[in-house]
Queue: 2 jobs
Job 1
Amino acid sequence: GAVVSQHPSRVICKSGTSVKIECRSLDFQATTMFWYRQFPKKSLMLMATSNEGSKATYEQGVEKDKFLINHASLTLSTLTVTSAHPEDSSFYICSARPGNTEAFFGQGTRLTVV
Amino acid sequence: GIQVEQSPPDLILQEGANSTLRCNFSDSVNNLQWFHQNPWGQLINLFYIPSGTKQNGRLSATTVATERYSLLYISSSQTTDSGVYFCACSQGGKLIFGQGTELSVKP
């Protein structure tokens, strides 16, 4: 299957700082990528759709200014958590689809804000 | 939007037993996938199955699109099958996840 790579896998940051998470499609081009958030023992919640060359589409209730998404190329989308607070601590995971078939997911990023 | 419900929420099995996990969805879909989330959080693709039946080793899946449900069968379960199983559906590009079934296989 296709490969989606996410970096870093784990990050600890101080309150008030910003953290950038990268999502790359390694063997295919992706005009669209998706960002999810998962709380412990919970399901994956879609945060936003990342669109190459245009603005991201955010799901209801997701703060655009808190979670900045940039999709600068056909193989890279980034999620920046700005002015992070402890409540932003979570597992963030991205996905992409080669063509119009199944989605593949990155390894995920475990963010801890202290 | 589309609603995805999974059952049961939790399942405990003895090694060697068989199990069936169910996924109900509220509207027609063009994509349905089953995933296994490992202890490190990685989502492992099990099946892409918007309709029909597929088999891969001890696992198989069936989706009856007209009745809006999908089933994941695990036969001769092993302790390594433990973890959370998710069903996810989409009408367009974005996948919506069910709440998952947490499976624990005891030796």
Job 2
Amino acid sequence: NAGVTQTPKFQVLKTGQSMTLQCAQDMNHNSMYWYRQDPGMGLRLIYYSASEGTTDKGEVPNGYNVSRLNKREFSLRLESAAPSQTSVYFCASSDPRGATVMNTEAFFGQGTRLTVV
Amino acid sequence: AQTVTQSQPEMSVQEAETVTLSCTYDTSESDYYLFWYKQPPSRQMILVIRQEAYKQQNATENRFSVNFQKAAKSFSLKISDSQLGDAAMYFCAYRPRPYSGGGADGLTFGKGTHLIIQP
């Protein structure tokens, strides 16, 4: 049972380059999320998707775009990477708001460490 | 917007002793979930314990228990009989529950507490 799978695990980009972080889940969850984690800042929500075909901004969406390709996959794109986007990125999935307590936790991928030089 | 505050950047405890990690939050909603996640050096986010806001009873999971004070908006984590494997970053997180056709989703996290276990 793979859970949430992110690729790649590590990436170094030059300023101005673009890239897409891939995420897939096999738990049949409706909701998917992208977070970034910076030292001393905890995890902050970039974008989320409550269902296939819908996406919404989170706390720190600037400089990112997302695509909910289907129920399983949710990708994060950096069109023109900046050093301020150096971070660890996590994808997560869960049942939607309103679910029972046993199904409301978020399941996380292993994270992608991205360095922009 | 909701906020989650963890006021202890770092805590240290002797192996086999008990430690309590603090978390406070701010929300205008009455129905929500609270979580504690553990992040070891492997970076993996692991759920430790969950609590429903409308349940008065404090959640427990083996050596882990919470003290949930809804009126005070406080949600502390107690780890009993601390073990070396408990060493990690611990994050408190909040998620609103009611779904009335809209509204923001996602977990709001605190900045974390680094827990050190002294052998």
